[in-house]
Amino acid sequence: MAEPKLLSTEEIARHNTVKDLWIVVDGQVWDMTEFAPEHPGGIGLILQHAGHDASQSYNQVHAPSLLPNTLTTSKLVGTHDTSTISPSWSKPPPQQNPKVQLQNEKPPLSTLISTHDFEAVAEKTLAPKTWAFYSSAATDLVTHRANQTFFDRVWFRPRVLRDVRVRDTRSRIFGQDVEMPVFVSPAALAKLVHPEGEKAIARAVQNK
Questions:
Q1: What pTM was estimated for this model as a whole?
Q2: How many Å is the Cα radius of gyration of the chain?
Q3: What values do phi and psi take at 54, rounded to 5?
Q4: 22: part of which helix (H) or strand (E)?
């Protein structure tokens, strides 16, 4: 069996694009060009380490045998010549630093994943009286708690290792086609939350 090809850091670093993508994992150099678009976690995670050492990120979530068992031997380009490592190449890939979030500051809309997230943000950012008004319900809250209980009975069937880059949230509510299964009920005093009140709610529903 032929000895694995010894590859310099400079050579590995040149393969750092979507169409030509190499990574280093535990000293082995793998060609991920064909596999990256099919990666269940998305191509971005692999592209972040293109032309660099991905050992730390890989070993945090994968078994050592996953790459050899998933890819063909032809994708094993060679081994990394560690004597050629430069200080700049050793630096971890750039990552976006999270912005410090103040207790009463609304986070970016893109960070809110579910309707529960909106409720949690509202509780922290609305005035106490406004939150008390919107988080309450009629009299003893019996129907309010019942609605929550019935909603919690709806479970999603888990489907692991699926490509979720393209998603479709369209559904039907009361016979009407909707872009996402969220119904906005009429509510009074919307200007307690936003100066435009109900107009802002209607515009958001129309746009989304």
A1: 0.48
A2: 25
A3: -110, 15
A4: strand 20-25
